[in-house]
Amino acid sequence: SQRSSANYQLDACTDKWRTFGKPGRIAVTVRTLVREAQAGGWRAPSSINSALHDFSAFDNPPELTPDEDGVYSEAPDWWHKHSVGNMLRIEAPVRQWVWRGVLRQGKVMILSGSGGSSKSYLMLGAAVQYALNNSWGPFEACGDNADRALLLYGEEDKDDVHDRVRALRHSFMLTDDDISQIERRVAVLPLRWTNVELAKLDPVDQHVIVTEQLRRLEARIAEYKVKLVILDPLAMFHSLEENDNVVIASLVR
Hints:
The protein is of the alpha/beta class. The chain has helices at 12-19, 30-39, 46-49, 78-81, 85-89, 119-131, 158-172, 176-185, 212-223, 245-252; strands at 97-99, 103-104, 148-153, 186-190, 199-201, 208-210, 226-232. The strands form three sheets. A three-stranded parallel sheet has the order 4-3-7, with helices on both faces. The chain has a two-stranded antiparallel sheet with strand order 1-2. Strands 5-6 form a two-stranded antiparallel sheet. The protein is extended, with a radius of gyration of 25 Å.
C-alpha cells in the first residue's frame, strides 16, 4: 500500500490476496511481505524477530558504489567487516546512564530479595533521588530535568502508596522546591485489583507476545520522556511460567 497511488480501501488486502498463487504469477508468501516491509523501513517487534531467522549477518558485504569523485573505498571481506580491529583502534561510544555504575539507559535491572525486605520502598526512594538528581547510595544520578520516572505498583492501592510517599517526605526532609521537582518528574500507578498483563503466550504458536496494554504504556513512556520505569513486582504484570528460561528471556526482551 505504501507504493500504491490509490487510496487505501478496507477490502483491498482481501482482494489482492486472491490474485496470489495463480498460474503464471510469482509465488508471494507472508515472508515476501515481511521482506518488502523491512525494505521499506518496518522493524518487527522482538516477539516476531525471535521467530524470523535473518542470517544476513553471515552474508558477505554488498558491492560498494563509487563516491562523488568516482573513488571506491576498499571493500572489506566478511571477516574484516566483523573484526574487532577497528574497535581496538577507536574510542568506544559514550554510554548513557540512569545511575552511573549500576544502571544504563535502555537496560534492565532486577532487584530481588525476600518478602518484606522493603524493596518497594527502596525503589520509591530511588525514583525520588533520581528526580532530585541526587546519588542513589554510591551511584551518581545521570538524568536531566526533562527525564522522568514511572513506578507501576502491582500489589499496592492508592492509600498504600500515599502512606509510603508521606513517610518518605519526612525521612528525606523534602522542601517545597524538592516536592515541585518530584511532581514534574515522578508518577506512580497503584494497580492493585487491576488486571494488567504486559506480555502473554500466543495461544496458537506459544510464543511470548506483547499486549495492547504494553503498547499503550510504551506510548505514554515516549510521550512523557520517561527514562526510568519500575515494575513492582514483575510477577504481577504477566502470567507466564517463571521457571521457563526461554519464556522469561522473551518476557524481559
